[in-house]
Amino acid sequence: MSEPIGERIRRAPKVLLHDHLDGGLRPQTIIDLAPEGHVLPATEADALRQWFEDSASSGSLERYLETFDHTVAVMQTADNLRRVARECVEDLAADGVVYAEVRYAPEQHLDGGLSLTEVVEAVRDGFAEGEAAAEADGSPITVRQLLTAMRHQARSMEIAELAVGYRDDGVVGFDIAGAEAGFPPTRHLDAFEYLQRENAHFTIHAGEAFGLPSIWQAIQWCGADRLGHGVRIIDDVTRQPDGSVQLGRLASYVRDKRIPLEMCPSSNIQTGAAASIAEHPIGLLKDLRFRVTVNTDNRLMSGTSLSRELELLVDAFGYDFADLRWFAINAMKSAFLPFDERLAIIDEVIKPAYAVLATMS
Fold first, then answer.
1. Secondary structure letter of residue 35 according to DSSP
2. Is 208 a catalytic residue?
């Protein structure tokens, strides 16, 4: 009897570039760590998991944002942050992820009296513990931090300086996140210009809830290395009556420059950026050879894993392991890890494993 496709996908080495630490907690961990007086919507793990998924899929932005009130509330001490970070790594390793960049906003974890540096160091230590546990379990993984600034706040320069300060200690880049409409990335130009002067890497959430202007600003004004989501670049791609496809100037630039798109299919559906997996722009963008990567965004809220995201794409678009290898190498090429380390993972981990998987197809 042949091995189920889902299990083969889980065993395949995968690379994850867009995953939020506060969006991937285990429900039982939230219950265990909930501070005194914090009322959860459910006190049994399966019921709490279902609440998160239902709330994120409700179509209500207010209810979706409420989910993070509960996860962030339990991430306010060093011990709790270390546990959440360690479990994140363990869960990703169990899913066959071999390299991940996990992002979070340090400024959201100060209510318990921690400093920004203490937050970063607690997450660093948790990641290291998780990597050691995964190695001992025979599932080696490398995980690095992306430090996120909130675009509606005014701490982006402070967080950018924090990212540069820890770039030799587990932090590989910077990000901004939060509501796009009304909070353009150009509000944080000083932070992006500082990062460029420091030869630092950064990605920008753009082109999910807001369209092409957000993408254009992120690239042409701010100099983003990657686009968080970037799904709305499809608005600059036109199908002609004869079936051919014409790219607008921005879409052409994104493809020509090989700017990576950190796409998160299930999450994009929850936020209304795509109607369904089958209708997700990732299908056409892959056909057009954009630098597409597949990601999870918020694993708890979307009830997902990277293996599940890939399996959904296999079902929708008929992808095989050659396509999944393409996604993994795309992501590894686009990672903020130093070149020699990226190349080692591609040549020594990804390619050999997919060569074996190809013989099993």
1. P
2. yes
